[in-house]
Amino acid sequence: MATLIGSVPNAVFAAVAASSLDRKISFAQWMIFAVPVTIILLVILYFMLTKWLFKVDDAEKISSDFAKKALHDLGPMSREEKLTGSVFLLVSLLWIFGGLIPDSIHVSDTVIAILGAVLLFLIPSTKHKGGLLVWDDMSQLPWGILLLFGGGLSLAAAFEDSGLTKWFGGMLSIVKPLPLILIVIVITTGILFLTEVMSNTAVSNMLMPISIGFAAAISKDPFIIMGIVALSSTCAFMLPISTPPNAAVFSSDELEMKDMVKAGFILNIFAIIVISLFAYFWLPIAFGI
Hints:
Layout: H1 8-20, H2 27-53, H3 65-74, H4 79-97, H5 109-122, H6 143-162, H7 164-172, H8 180-194, H9 200-217, H10 222-232, H11 244-250, H12 257-286
Helix pairs in contact: 1-6, 1-9, 1-10, 2-12, 4-5, 6-9, 7-9, 8-10, 8-12, 9-10, 10-12
């Protein structure tokens, strides 16, 4: 949620904004908007789980010895690990502070990502022939997600070119007289619960182009609606099927379904409040709308 690469909906937001609206979202811009939301939700999550729903007594706290042992078992960092970490740090810094680079150099977030990948291929490894990254590693990439992401961009372009975006906007224009804050809350609530039963990638790909037409129909900047889609579709807390991390936690057999649904529902309510307030008050400031 906090960065453009942290979740697919964030990347969909930036890509659709660039392709359909010709507006660039930098890595730093998104972080200025989303990091405060992430921090607040993390704080709420901590107190909600450990102080309210599942109180953790001092006697039940897990000793830190297991973490120290696991760290010790890893041993010192290898040359390859240090080099990979250095490339990652370089790419992260360029993403965050890329806005300081003169426009004449034409360094976009995409160019920075490609630069990082090329460096990993070029820097030689002492463990195997070739670079830190070899072509065989490409087979482990989630190509299905990448194709779905690309398909979503094609869908957004088709919506725009066919006039479907404007048609949806006209259909939804009946809500224009309503206060914007009410519209924001309703959209946030609907998307957040929709993503409980649908992939966040599918939700964002489906709703991001529609949100452009909807924003035009209510005479608001599309970034407000698109930002809601991006953040809300990332928040899936109630069900094991909602997102892979939920499934991983539930598979531990330490959690009953009713516990996950209860905690997830309450966190959803907090997320609706936080996202709605930030989309209404902070998003226009963060993106200079």
